[in-house]
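**User:** Hello, beginner here. Are you able to go through the protein record under this note? It all follows right here:
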Amino acid sequence: MINSFNSKAVSKIIAIPTRVIDYWDRTAFIKPSVSEASGYGSVRLYSFTDLIQFRVAKFFRDQGLSMQKIRKSLNYLSKQLPEVENPLDQLRFLTDGETIFVLTNK
């Protein structure tokens, strides 16, 4: 069985408010991969891989990057690297607080 985490657990583990988790789900930034919400009172369930995505996104926010810049960068990556389904958990990043860099072996 897959380990799963509800929004409250994600909030505690990653140290982000549950309202941010809800917003990121509603705006399709990070969707729960185990179980999506299906109405009022239903539970979203996130996987460990989802936690990694939350952690990387929180790191970018903590470095001062706007959500607009993060989303724009991820959209660019999805066009340039279509084989990468979830860049936040499949790639390694570096930032100077202004620009997001993807670390590669090349």
Strands lie at 92-95, 100-103. The first strand starts at residue 92 and ends at 95. The chain has a mean pLDDT of 90.
